[in-house]
């Protein structure tokens, strides 16, 4: 926690008569706050009026004459100055017999002004009414009626990744497995409209690439070919956890033989047989456009269906 230094001496009065102003200050340096500790509490500046006697027999046009008792009857001598409006300023004036600003007006630069025209004291500097000053990256302060009014919106906080965790154990002890590691978007977490973390919170890589011993059995025998001629396929299989468990190959690639007419009863081979239809599929054809190809000649009225008459 910070501590205040001693008060400085009062400054020279700003006027020799008709009420001037004196100030003194102290600093939060005994000791200074460290490691984010709180600042000092209380006022940093004190003010008081000085040389309050009239310069002439009468008070200035914008001031009024009051006795000390009249001053105390109207609430005391504070606040009398524009500077007294600031949060870190303390009025140290006492009631006296002399010239005062009328109620609702405050002394500034040896003149009485309404509060809306008062300057503002902020961090060691004076600012005019309506003047802005940067407070931090997200907030500004504005001089309003002798006091700096500051916004207090929290600044956006962008997400930050934590460190990666250690890799997990591999999912397999041989052949190909995977392992994982993780991180979280909590360093810091996104807040007040800040950006989310980019990227993934999970990383995956392959592991245990050495082959397993005895993990697959021997291939079984080939299956029967799917067709007797014209090209078919066959397969064989084996017992395995991760390796290929079935494979295929072609078989019986030789062409199928031509039909022997002598093997079909009531037929004879002809280079140009009678007109269609000669099979059930030909019944829907336009008879005038179809000429039968060479092949078995059927008896009148017979239909050839799947090798049978």
Automatic annotation (TrEMBL):
<feature type="domain" description="VWFC">
    <location>
        <begin position="118"/>
        <end position="208"/>
    </location>
</feature>
<protein>
    <recommendedName>
        <fullName>VWFC domain-containing protein</fullName>
    </recommendedName>
</protein>
<keyword id="KW-0732">Signal</keyword>
<dbReference type="InterPro" id="IPR001007">
    <property type="entry name" value="VWF_dom"/>
</dbReference>
<keyword id="KW-0677">Repeat</keyword>
<keyword id="KW-0964">Secreted</keyword>
<dbReference type="InterPro" id="IPR000884">
    <property type="entry name" value="TSP1_rpt"/>
</dbReference>
<keyword id="KW-1015">Disulfide bond</keyword>
<dbReference type="InterPro" id="IPR052065">
    <property type="entry name" value="Compl_asym_regulator"/>
</dbReference>
<dbReference type="InterPro" id="IPR002919">
    <property type="entry name" value="TIL_dom"/>
</dbReference>
<dbReference type="InterPro" id="IPR036383">
    <property type="entry name" value="TSP1_rpt_sf"/>
</dbReference>
<dbReference type="Pfam" id="PF00090">
    <property type="entry name" value="TSP_1"/>
</dbReference>
<dbReference type="InterPro" id="IPR036084">
    <property type="entry name" value="Ser_inhib-like_sf"/>
</dbReference>
<dbReference type="Pfam" id="PF01826">
    <property type="entry name" value="TIL"/>
</dbReference>
């Amino acid at each position: 926690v910070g501590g205040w230094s001693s008060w400085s001496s009062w400054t020279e009065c700003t006027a020799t008569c008709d009420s001037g102003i004196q100030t003194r200050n102290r600093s939060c340096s005994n000791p200074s706050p460290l490691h984010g500790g709180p600042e000092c509490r209380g006022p940093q500046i004190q003010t008081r009026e000085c040389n309050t006697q009239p310069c002439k027999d009468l008070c200035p046009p914008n001031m009024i004459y009051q006795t000390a008792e009249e001053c105390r009857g109207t609430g005391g001598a504070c606040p009398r100055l524009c500077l007294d409006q600031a949060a870190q300023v303390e009025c140290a004036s006492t009631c006296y017999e002399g010239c005062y600003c009328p109620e609702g007006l405050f002394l500034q630069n040896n003149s009485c002004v309404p509060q809306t025209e008062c300057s503002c004291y902020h961090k060691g500097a004076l600012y005019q009414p309506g003047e802005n000053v940067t407070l931090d990256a997200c907030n500004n302060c504005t001089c309003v009626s002798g006091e700096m009014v500051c916004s207090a919106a929290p600044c956006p906080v962008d997400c930050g990744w934590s460190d990666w965790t250690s890799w997990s154990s591999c999912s397999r002890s041989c052949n190909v497995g995977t392992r994982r590691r993780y991180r979280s978007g909590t360093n810091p977490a996104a807040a007040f409209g800040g950006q989310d973390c980019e990227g993934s919170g999970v990383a995956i890589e392959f592991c245990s690439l050495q082959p397993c011993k005895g993990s697959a059995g021997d291939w079984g025998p080939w299956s029967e070919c799917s067709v007797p001629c014209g090209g078919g396929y066959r397969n064989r299989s084996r017992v395995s956890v991760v390796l290929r468990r079935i494979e295929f190959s072609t078989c019986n690639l030789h062409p199928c033989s031509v039909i022997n007419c002598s093997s079909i009863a009531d037929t004879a081979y002809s280079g140009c047989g009678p007109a269609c239809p000669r099979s059930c599929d030909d019944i829907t054809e336009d008879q005038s456009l179809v000429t039968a190809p060479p092949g078995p000649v059927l008896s009148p009225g017979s239909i050839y269906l799947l090798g049978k008459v």
